[in-house]
Design brief:
By secondary structure, the chain is an alpha+beta fold. Helices cover 19% and strands 33% of the residues. It has 8 helices and 31 strands. A 6-stranded mixed β-sheet has the order 14-15-18-19-21-20, with no helix packed on it. Strands 13-12-11-22-23 form a 5-stranded mixed β-sheet, with helices on one face. A hairpin with a 2-residue loop joins strand 7 and strand 8. The N and C termini lie far apart (55 Å). The N terminus is likely disordered.
Length: 470
């Protein structure tokens, strides 16, 4: 199907849905009392205290696993917050924790118990696969998917799931099906966040911009549990109703829902918030989100969108802004800050969290790139430590002699300048440009030095070394 035909058909479908949403709500299909009841069971036995939501109310099941919820008139789904100790329900590895509202007055959920403890588990964060055409898809399937499968295999039997934090596709929603095949191939449960390129443009306002996404992946905000970790997926992309205009904003309905959801969560649980646009500097009402999280002792935010890596700690909340699976939009091996194409890998042990960034196609120990410039009467060493945060230590050695820590500077990764700087680069998609980054480190040394080595030590004490000779 060509793009023009697809847009026309999408427009007709969107118009039909928009009219239908205005003419009746999902509640008109239900009984007059506007209630849905059901049961959450496992092997025929009801499960108590499972959270059930319509996106507005949040209620726990009773001791027999039963629930009854009065639906909000804007509700489109009923979903459960999968409790710890149970497998994620999936359809071809896509998370399926929800049911669409229709003429049924009873919606039941069946869960299977896990065969092992989930107190220790891993998860993978994919940010911005952002495929626009079949050529991009082919790159994703040939690089990111097999690399992720290799990492998953290396984990052994520990439970692992994935979360894609938005921009699954690049405006071409037909390619959701190709992403789905990638998820199926990777072989683990995957949850999805809405990104700005996953929205429907020019078909109404923010309320209708997530129509296609919801048809494929369900609600745009929800929660689930594994071990002592409570995961929340949110939609922080607000469509402004004109062309492709959007901003970073979390709706009041979501904030109200999140307050109710978190009221059932222990204050010492590990909280993992997943969304697309970085919260610390690009979500206009980020203070409202921080206020809801202030009493929790361990909170991490997973975001994407920027196509570079940045780790920021705000009021004790650690935000991991990830480099992109597609790098600089599938045009080169690195993102605009020099971070290799790749994804985040996280290990949960109780409420403790450890992590690293996995560069696609490279060894897991490759966490630093170095460059040496020829200057007048001296040389300059530049190290790009892409997953750096203030707890890292970056040291250098000259001909085996320890020289101490390198100076942290903001600047441009030399490889990105050569690959992306200028109106004709990169070939095919010329809009990527080098992006200034805070994770560069610099030192100067005499031209007669033969061997230069950089050792970067992360906050967990793991060392990453790289050496240059001659």
């Amino acid at each position: 199907m060509n793009r023009r035909s697809f847009i026309q058909k999408s427009g007709l479908l969107a118009t039909t849905l928009f009219v239908s949403l205005k003419s009746y709500s999902a509640l008109s299909l239900l009984a007059v009392d506007r209630k849905i009841s059901g049961k959450v069971t496992s092997k025929g036995k009801g499960i108590a205290n499972v959270l059930v939501s319509d996106g507005f109310s949040v209620i726990p099941t009773d001791k027999n696993g039963n629930y009854s919820i009065e639906l909000n008139e804007l509700a489109r789904f009923i979903w459960i917050s999968t409790p710890s100790g149970y497998e994620f329900t999936t359809n071809s590895n896509l998370a399926k924790y929800y049911e669409k509202l229709d003429a049924r007055n009873a919606l039941n959920f069946e869960l299977n118990p896990m065969r092992m403890s989930d107190t220790r588990h891993n998860f993978i964060i994919w940010a911005d696969p952002q495929v626009k055409n079949k050529k991009d898809v082919a790159q994703m399937m040939a690089t990111a998917v097999p690399d992720t499968k290799k990492i998953i295999k290396s984990m052994g039997k520990i439970p692992v799931h994935g979360i894609t934090v938005g921009d699954i596709v690049w405006d071409n929603h037909e390619l959701f099906a190709d992403y789905d095949l990638a998820v199926k191939e990777m072989g683990i449960p995957f949850f999805q966040c809405l990104g700005n390129h996953d929205m429907d443009y020019r078909m109404g306002g923010d309320d209708t911009s997530d129509r296609t996404f919801q048809e494929h992946y369900g609600p745009t905000y929800y929660s689930f549990n594994r071990g002592k970790a409570h995961y929340v997926v949110m939609d922080d992309v607000r469509y402004l109703g004109v062309e492709r205009n959007y901003d970073g904003f979390i709706s009041q309905a979501q904030l109200d829902w999140l307050a109710k959801d978190l009221s059932f969560v222990s204050k010492d649980a590990l909280i993992i918030i997943n969304l697309h646009i970085p919260v610390h500097n690009s979500v206009k009402n980020n203070a409202d989100l921080y206020a809801l999280l202030k009493d929790f002792t361990k909170v991490h935010i997973m975001s994407g969108h920027t196509h570079y890596t940045r780790n920021v700690i705000t009021n004790g909340i650690f935000e991991h802004n990830h480099g992109a699976v597609c790098g600089a939009w599938w045009t080169g091996p690195v993102c605009e800050d020099g971070t290799p194409r790749g994804y985040g890998v996280y290990a949960v042990d109780g409420t403790d969290l450890k992590w690293y960034y996995q560069p696609t196609g490279l060894d897991r120990k490759e966490q630093v790139h170095i460059y040496i410039d020829e200057l007048t009467n001296q040389k300059r060493l530049i190290a790009n430590v892409w997953n750096w945060d203030p707890m890292w230590k970056v040291e250098y050695f000259l001909d085996g002699k320890a020289m101490g820590e390198m100076e942290n500077q903001k600047g441009y990764d030399p490889q990105t300048v050569s690959l992306y700087k200028g109106p004709t680069l990169p070939a095919g998609r010329t809009f990527p440009e080098p992006h200034s980054t805070e994770h560069l480190f610099v030192a100067h040394f005499a031209p007669n030095v033969n061997v230069v080595k950089v050792v970067a030590t992360d906050r967990f004490g793991e060392k990453f070394e790289i050496e240059s000779k001659g």
